[in-house]
Every structure is written in structure tokens, then in C-alpha cells.
Amino acid sequence: MVARLQQCIVLAWLLVAAAWTASWWPHAPGIALGGLLTLSLAHAAFLALEFIASYHVSRRDPLGRASARQSVRAWVAESRAALRVFCWQQPFRSQAVPDHLPMSSGRRGVVLVHGFLCNRGFWNPWLRELRARGHAFVAVDLEPVFDSIERYVTVLDEAISRVTAATGRPPVMVCHSMGGLAARAWLRSADMARVHRIITIGTPHRGTWLARFGHTVNGRQMRIDGEWMRQMESACGSAPEVPFTCWYSNCDNIVFPTSSATLPGADNRLAPGRGHVEMAFVSSLRQQTLALLDD
User: Fold this and answer.
1) Which tens digits make up the pLDDT trace of 167-188?
2) Is the separation of the CB atoms in 264 and 239 below 8 Å?
3) Count of beta carbons in the 10 Å neighbourhood of residue 240
């Protein structure tokens, strides 16, 4: 569903751009170029508002906030990363790297869980590297897209079973954004020995300020101090029983304030000056994360 939705958005953008250019270029090339530039940078302007909000909301956070210079750099990088992910990888390449389940490889497998309004295409660079390293993996699609986070528990459970059957070992879960909350929802009713470690990247473990504007079921669940977040905190206790590694950024434009992406008792790791999507594609972060597969 996400792939089709984003395909429609990209194709609609191209049609609008083509129509605008065709109508203005013959008699006003400047207006034609200005309109194209506006269309091309509209997403960057929207992201700028998110970074401004993150900068101000995180000013009193105990983990601090990025400098203005870091925020500007992160905004530019996030604008590029968002185009690549939402206009190419997810709409047109979501099935480019299929799940890989070689039998008896001897290496620990991975379950990859994307975030809100994403699909398995988000993980394509990770999937190619995991396959090259000989790791079994399943990258899930979380659907229904706008439903309760609890609805994804069955999807995760099936993926964990498939990877375990192929490797004979509990897998590692690698989760971006809301995917980490889906993993924690799965933990509430699961045998914790079925996973070796859970790694989250920009997950709103304590909710996010931005979710106050969310009106979908899962969007409302990510509100700071919301009922669902309080229930999650109560069910999971003060320290996770399954080892967690939580990547967070002081420049996250979606999950803020800064400490929202951390957990008490977890291996909390800072990815300084990185935007929410960009963070998942930082080479050093990916290499450090994959190194945990051999722990």
C-alpha cells in the first residue's frame, strides 16, 4: 500500500511539473523555472519547520541539542535522503532485494522493521550488505499502515520464526522509528529468548513532540505521556530484559526532544548531527550495528 501511495505522489508531482513547464516556458521561462524550483524544494521547506521545532523543543532536554550549524547541515542531508527514500527506494524498489533465508548458514539472522509511512524498501542498502555477508534476513512490511501498533505483532512474530528456522539461532531485530515500538509491543507477550538483541534507530521510546499533530491510530499512540506510551512504560518496566541498543540523534527532526529515543538501561548511542531518515544510512552507524550480530 505504501509503495502504491508514494508512486501516485511521485507521478502526480511529475505531471504537475510537466504541465507547469509546458504552460509557462513558451512565454515566461523565468516563471517556469521558478515554479519547478518551488516544487522541487517544497519538501525541504517542510523539513526545515521540523528541524526548527526540534531545535527549540530540545533546548531543555538533559541530553542537549545540536548547534545551529549542525541543524542546518542535518537539514540539507535529510532533504537529500528523504527524496531518495520516499521518491525512489520505497515506491519503486521495495521488492528489489528479496528476503534471504539460506539454510544452516551458521550466522545470526536479522529481522528489519521499518517505521511510520515506510516499507521494506527503506532497508535496501542494509539488505544488500547483509546478503553479501551471508546473513539470513527478513524485512517486514507493517500493514495496515495507519492501524494500531499492536496489529504488527503477528507480522514480527512470523518473521522471527522464519529467520530462526533458517539459522537455528535467535535473530537480532533492527528497527527504525516506529518499528522499535512495534518490537517492544511484540515483547510484551513473547518469549524474550526468541530474540538475541533489539537495535533501534530513532525510535520514539518515550513518544515524540511531533505526534501531537498525528491523527492516525499509530500516530496518536506515539504522543508523549499518551495513554499508549504510559501502558508501554508500565508493561516493560524500568530496564529492558532483552539487550537493547538505541541510536539517537541530537538533530532528529521527527523524534524529539533528544532523550525520547533512549531507554533506561539500554546501550544508548549518539549519532550526532543526523536527521531522522539520514541516520539510518550513515555508514559508520550501519557497520557498528552489524558488528553486534556477532556478539
Assistant:
1) 999 999 999 999 999 999 999 9
2) yes
3) 18
